[in-house]
Automatic annotation (TrEMBL):
Keyword Metal-binding: yes
Cross-referenced PANTHER family: HIGH-AFFINITY ZINC UPTAKE SYSTEM PROTEIN ZNUA-RELATED, METAL-BINDING PROTEIN HI_0362-RELATED
Protein name as it appears in the record: Manganese transport system substrate-binding protein
Localization (cell): Cell envelope
Family: Belongs to the bacterial solute-binding protein 9 family.
Organism in which the protein naturally occurs: Pseudarthrobacter oxydans (Arthrobacter oxydans)
Length: 324
């Protein structure tokens, strides 16, 4: 398959330093084995359709990537729907899958604590999709000053993710660059529409109830876009979360500001937030989605659904308490 081999060579040659990082295997034998296994265009899914395989670290990125890839690439996520993604522990199967991928996409901004170790020794190109977004810092806890990784919670930021994907996919598969560019533009228009819908919906929350109290501090970007004050129990999902001090701090805020409703995310236990509910009389406003999509038959099978769902749940819960 001469054309196939030629494309393999092009992929390697077009990898740009700075934008795409190539991890080199320590052992030559491992590289050779990996190349033999992948034959460059081989599939992580083993579906044998010959399309290059793009592997993302979580389901939200996979959905965004599918919108850009169209039918030209096979896109899969390492973590499954509903998974906790910050402290995920990759399995040997995940590593095997990654070794056969043609491109790996990660969010960056310290989201995937496991990622560096995961790709160590893999000879697969890798692109960081958050590159170029306006990063917000975490203001509290031991993460103070570090970037808040949840940049995708602003659809406007995701337009930058899309640009990065269009570039990375065009490097991977130059013959389809025009299709990726067109898909990217179409999806960016949808992102803008959802962004406008979200901010319009949340603009309806009364002035004195514009506080978004959640479990993880994952909503900084959404709160910024919508003009809400963000309050959370813990900064980033980790082993040390929901300490008594963190819960007390949230309780005090909710009481002092008569916050009508509080929320928690789908990938963590809402038990700490239920303690806030019991101590304050605030309502539990609902489950929000941020770090993972739901299964296809759940409430947020796509990223656009995720933003629409969260905007609706927040608006409803905070507006229902108005005047009571
Ligand atoms: Zn998170």
């Amino acid at each position: 398959m001469p054309k196939f081999m030629f494309r393999c060579a092009k992929v390697a040659a077009r990898t740009r330093p700075g934008r795409t990082v190539r991890f080199r295997a320590a052992a030559v034998a491992a590289v050779v084995l990996s190349l033999l296994l992948t034959a460059c265009g081989g599939g992580a899914s083993g579906n044998g359709d010959g399309k290059p395989v793009v592997l993302t670290t979580f389901t939200v990125l996979a959905d965004i990537a599918r919108n850009v890839a169209g039918d030209k690439l096979t896109v899969e996520s390492i973590t499954k729907a509903g998974a906790e993604i910050h402290g995920y522990e990759p399995t040997p199967g995940d590593i095997r899958k990654a070794s056969k991928a043609d491109l790996i996409l990660d969010n960056g901004l310290n989201l995937e604590a496991w990622f560096g170790q995961f790709v160590e020794g893999l000879d697969v190109p890798h692109a960081v999709v958050s590159e170029g977004v306006e990063v917000m810092s975490i203001s509290e806890d031991s993460y103070q000053g570090k970037p808040n990784p949840h940049a995708w919670m602003s659809p406007v930021n995701v337009q930058t993710y899309v640009d990065n994907m269009v570039r990375a996919f065009s490097d991977l598969d130059p013959d389809n660059a025009a299709a990726f560019a067109a898909n990217g533009e179409a999806y960016k228009a949808e992102l803008q529409a959802v962004q406008d819908q979200m901010t319009a919906s949340l603009a309806g929350v009364p002035e004195n109830q514009r506080a978004l109290v959640t479990c993880e501090g994952a909503f900084s970007y959404l709160a910024r876009d919508a003009g809400l004050k963000e309050v959370y129990i813990w900064a980033v999902n980790a082993e040390q979360q929901a300490t008594p001090q963190q819960i007390t701090r949230a309780i005090e805020y909710v009481k002092a500001n008569q916050v009508p409703a509080v929320f928690c995310e789908s990938t963590v236990s809402d038990a700490p937030m239920q303690q806030v509910v019991e101590a304050t009389g605030a309502r539990f406003g609902g489950t929000l989605y941020v770090d993972s999509l739901s299964e296809a038959d759940g409430p947020v099978p796509t990223y656009l659904d995720l933003i629409r769902h969260d905007a609706e749940v927040i608006t409803k819960a905070l507006t229902a308490g108005a005047g009571s």
